[in-house]
Design a protein that fits this description.
This protein is an alpha/beta fold and 338 residues long. The protein folds into 2 domains: 214 residues, Vaccinia Virus protein VP39 (Rossmann fold, 3-Layer(aba) Sandwich), CATH 3.40.50; 98 residues, DNA polymerase, domain 1 (Orthogonal Bundle). The protein contains 16 helices and 7 strands. It has a 7-stranded mixed beta sheet, with helices on both faces. Helix 2 crosses helix 3. It is globular and about 60 Å long.
Length: 338
């Protein structure tokens, strides 16, 4: 997956030809110790077109994978790709903060690994009509689950100027957010915004020429912000991280790939909190109930090397973090999270 908006459209075809999973070998290396048990189960929380799951099923022939995705089209494509693995793969239409509900329905008390590949998927980027790309004219949709919820057009045409500016500033880190929001409100008094090209033109006209000359496409940050707002991505991730950690057995691992700073910050804080004592710093003896329940497996956030970038340009902004569960979460921390 990737947080950037594609500058090209890939022809429709089978999932394997359309999707190169980011940092696959490194993910498999990090997951391997947790997937050693003969009954190992992994949850791919962001299945997409199934590239990471296929890698796991091929590398570890005894492992079962539960794949979650809110995108029904992605589930269909991944299902076709992973059909040769039979009942070792189960696809579920769900958002990843529902992980423990899904496992309860499947009768699985806990899993050995959780993989998250955050952001917008290759499928969503490459399907022009989904409206994720600023490079192609399309309806202003941007829903990861095209069966429900508000669209980007709904946000642009109903939010007041202050809320629009907030979305662009917070989720897109767009320094010209007030100017863009003002232009959107002014334009929609004439006619509702319905097409991505209309939004691109408004954004371009709202950003000074000197600023447009650097930092990539001028609409990149606005499209990112709208996508995050439409899909509630950060709120969902904030719920999903503790739910995913609680789904792990002791010795289980969570591996997360993030593509923009807001996501990576949430991941960093969630994993660091579990790997840090919850006791007051001045206690002379550390009570067992306050000992860390996670061990960080990566040192900081890992990035793609030159070989990975050459193989898969969409890995440019990836930040990879991983942790291992070393003990159950203390009751007082579980209650606080709930």
């Amino acid at each position: 997956m990737d947080d950037a908006t594609a500058d090209r459209t890939v022809p429709v075809g089978d999932a394997a030809s359309r999707h190169v999973p980011v940092l696959l070998e490194r993910c498999l290396e990090l997951l391997a110790p947790a997937l050693e048990p003969a009954d190992a189960v992994m949850v791919d929380s962001t299945l997409g077109m199934g590239g990471h799951t296929e890698g796991v099923l091929r590398r570890f022939p005894h492992v079962r994978v539960i794949g979650l995705d809110r995108d029904t089209q992605a589930l269909d494509l991944a299902g076709e790709r992973l059909a040769p693995f039979g009942d070792r793969f189960t696809g579920v239409h769900a958002v990843y903060d529902e992980i423990r509900d899904v496992l309860r329905r499947l009768g699985i008390p806990a899993v050995h690994a959780v993989l998250m590949d955050l952001g917008v998927s290759s499928l969503q980027l490459d399907e022009t009509e989904r409206g994720f790309s600023y490079a192609q004219d399309a309806p202003l949709d941007m829903r990861m689950d095209a069966t429900s919820g508000q669209t980007a057009a709904d946000v642009l045409n109903t939010y007041d100027e202050r809320d629009l500016a907030r979305v662009l500033r917070v989720y897109g880190e767009e320094r010209f957010a007030p100017r863009i929001a003002r232009a959107i409100v002014r334009a929609r008094t004439v006619a509702p915004l319905t097409r991505t090209s209309e939004l691109v033109d408004l954004v371009r006209a709202s950003i000074p020429a000197a600023a447009r000359a650097t930092g990539g496409h001028p609409a990149k940050r606005t499209f990112q912000a709208l996508r995050i707002e439409v899909n509630g991505e950060l709120e969902t991730l904030e719920r999903a991280l503790p739910e995913s950690i609680e789904a792990l057995v002791v010795g289980g691992r969570i591996v997360v790939e993030a593509y923009q700073s807001l996501e990576d910050r949430l991941v960093k804080h969630a994993l660091a909190a579990g790997a840090t004592s919850s006791a007051p710093p001045d206690l002379p003896v550390l009570p067992p109930t306050h000992e860390p329940y996670l061990r960080l497996v990566t040192r900081g956030a890992e990035e793609a090397d030159e070989a990975e970038l050459a193989r898969n340009p969409r890995s440019q902004s990836v930040r990879l973090r991983a942790a291992e569960r070393v003990r159950p979460t203390p009751d007082h921390l579980r209650r606080r999270a709930a």
